[in-house]
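Lecture 7, part 2: worked example. A protein chain together with pyridoxal-5'-phosphate.
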Amino acid sequence: MFKLTNLVRPNIRGMKPYSSARDEFKGEASIFIDANENSLGSMAASQHYNRYPDPHQKALKTKIAQIKEVRPEQIFLGNGSDEAIDLLIRLVCQPGHDQILAFGPTYGMYEVSANLNDIELRQVKLDADFQLTRNMLQGQIHSETKIVFICSPNNPSGNLINRSTIEYILQSFNGLVVIDEAYIDFSSEESWTKHLIEFPNLVVLQTFSKAWGMAALRLGMAFASEEIISFLDKIKPPYNINEATQEIALQALQSTERLQDMIQEIKENRSILIKELKKLTVVKKVYPSDANFILVEVTDANAIYKYLLQAGIVVRNRTNQPGCYNCMRISVGTKAENEKLVKTLKYFNL
Ligand SMILES: Cc1ncc(COP(=O)(O)O)c(C=O)c1O
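Predicted complex, written out as structure tokens:
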């Protein structure tokens, strides 16, 4: 049975979090000389940037909770979802002893964070369609396995991972199941956040870096049980979301109309790009995509990558990733960018 307190590292269970000046005083006051800030003002654009930001990001979480239909207590905010990945590993994995499981090819930061924390990453190869089946899990989960990472839609393949296999893992695994939904806004399926109550071991990651177009601001979300979130809050750096990011994100969340328009446009551009890429002689296969990028198998990924660079076009060469020989990952650009890419590829080797 899943029991979070058994899973959390013993040194963290009883750990006292840092108590910031803003934690210790919560009432109204007119003079703040408790945090060694600059009381004269700020050299930055906004004068109030002299003050530390809200360490609990209350306003932002309240708004996100409304939009995502969860409670604010079910939300952790990180300096990008990369921060959440790292903190989740640190929360439950004993360095030099524990393991995490992921399915490759997939997002590289699970491995980087595992290495950084001296945790072994077991990577099971996805099948030829980049899908995950129950059989592939046989013998892969051990007593040292504390987290299973599932990226859906998966980066770099672009496909959603089979819901029934994910459900099976959620039901049968007693560690954390982290579903990374960085690209969910471009997909046809609903988010796993709808199932947080059902599965106490579920953590869903989302980000403002993709559909929201706010990669520069570094804001990621983890949705989970109140219990998991309170542990993440306990171990995070106190002021991990800066004031500018909190303000700008709050503003962006006020009106989501443009977000839906952009998602729609990216999906339309994706359909056109897939159709056009399929017509090219250099393209051997175009994988289906539920994300804002497309994995494309070409005749010679290394040569085509260099050729595109010379034309000023940068794509991601994924030929060295498991199951991705001669594949490139191409983000869906503007209509004009996609047209330029297709036109350039047409002239390769001519
Ligand atoms: C699957 C996946 N998860 C997480 C991230 C990181 O997102 P963030 O910018 O929120 O750190 C990325 C970025 O490319 C990604 O592809």
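The domain at 4-18+55-254 is CATH 3.40.640.10 (Aspartate Aminotransferase; domain 2). The mean pLDDT is 96. Keep this in mind for problem set question 3.
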